[in-house]
Amino acid sequence: MDYQEAKARISELKKIIEESNRAYYVEDAPNITDFEYDELFRELNRIEAEYPELKTADSPTQKVGGKAAEGFKEVVHKYRLYSLDNSNNYDDLRKWYERVKKEYPKEDELSLVVELKIDGLSCALTYKNGELILGATRGNGIAGENITQNIKEIKSIPQKLSKQISIDVRGEVYMPVSSFERLNEENIERGIKEFANPRNAAAGSLRQLDSKITAQRDLHFFAYTALPEDKNIIKTHYEGMKLLEELGFETNPNYKLVKGIDEVIELCKYWETQRFNLNYATDGMVIKINEISKQNELGYTSRAPKWATAFKFPPEEVWTKLEDVELSVGKTGAVTPIAILTPVKLAGTVVKRASLHNFDEIQRLGINKGNEVLIKKAAEIIPKVIRKRENEDMGVYSMPDKCPSCGAELVKTDDEVALYCPNSLDCPAQIKGRIEYWASKEAMDIDGVGESIVEKLYEKGLINDFADLYKLTVDDFMTLDLIKEKSADNLYSAIQGTKNPTMTKFLTALSIKLIGKETAELIANEFPTLESIKNASIEDLIKIDGIGDKAAKSVVEFFNDENNKIILNKLEEYGVKPQGSAYEKTSNIFDGKTFVITGTLSQPRSVFEERIKKAGGKVSGSVSKKTSYVLAGENPGSKFDKASDLGVIILSENEFNLFFKE
User: Fold this and answer.
1) CA 20 to 30 Å from 107, out of 302, 376, 422, 486?
2) Domain count within the chain
């Protein structure tokens, strides 16, 4: 691989890994398997080692996680929460041990603590004189979300310790598998979308803006690290675990103190099969050097401790029969094939359906109904078909030519792999999909309005688009099966409570093709009123840094469509009025200015983004001729170089702060 190829591949890997980080840490919806993520991460590390001049401060190899979600205040951690490097097989595990062992050649075997890696949401707790004063998510490791009120709703987290001690505690919030299954059963009955797995259920429950909802969920907490203010209290990690138990914390009962790597591997092999008998999800083991003095000597890389590693269990794969292919029509008309399988147990749960992605993937796999297929779980969440049995030729499943929902002729564009139903106006699946998305957490977040409720309202003729939700009365809801007056009142109130969304939420919820939340925010920051967006031309939109030709064309076509105009008029008639920017402007010093932030600053990047936006400015992820300023911290990397080449003004943090001086 030459220099230019390495540079291009690094750029590609950064993008994929950053998207995966956001999906995992911010959206609680992993989009690739842990194994696939680790392989990509290893490749990036390898290329950066070969071409160190291409390693930049904004590389995923230099940081952890994502930023705080909307609705929670950001809090900077007293002690950074690092990620863990992974060992995906026993050879990797031995290599890690040998690297550490070289630092202590006189010792026969090192003392290690082996723990189950709980698949939940990492949290940091702070106690002052035995009183809980702060609970926060990991976030990006440097700063997370302040969720203290929700933390207090978890019964296994003590609000007052058994000793008046000042201490920081690290641990994992999780939902037992039995509670997860019960919650999903309740969600199905109420017509609410199911959670994908226990981790998503725990994260979704813990990050509720209403702590009463958190209190209703069966969340638990395993403490795994003690960081007392008095450093002399504990000398080893094992002593720290015992201290946590004395203070009133629940620790995972399966941690063990061992000597040498052979005992570690023996435990990993045992739990690889026994984990499915547990009432909580685990995807591996964590191995730590026991002595804290050795931990301090070994230190950290930019993102992970050298004195610990995570052994990841191999993804489980099983064979089963492909009984049928179900066609799902989405809100934009995209038709997606779903594998219907002979039920089979996989990673502790019974799997009946799996992803086939698209029809090109079916052709690549060469599969058809009746084939024996190998399936695995992506990130232990979404089952997918990997391949069929060799020498089993049953032909290939034929692509449909008509929409399974409305019967319209399907179309395919040259630049996309998906098949589309063009009948957006009268296709029931698309209509219901747009309404469901409008009400979803990603959009307007209308509590209680899920697939089942939308289906019932649509079938009764009470709604035909998402604007119709706002004309519904309590009596309308009471005509639905199993809906009593209190539930009807709650649904009505939930809908009416979303009449004044931010412009970003509003644009996101409209289901405009190619316009997701981030793109919607870029448009909303430039065009603060709905009228200004309606009147924007393609040329106006592509002037926004980050908006391409296709996205701009999609926006203009949406607002010029006569049917969409009718829906927008109805929304206005029913009192739905989007507000401007999510940020309340405090000054106009950056009006019309675009910033790019690079390098390490004194505070999390989100702090500076908020200051810029409140002062009227915009923040972009890439440097171009349209960029007004680059705010550069330590180790700024390639964005700094590009800004220099283009003649863009580069500001230090001190120079940036001068804008805010009286």
Assistant:
1) 302
2) 5
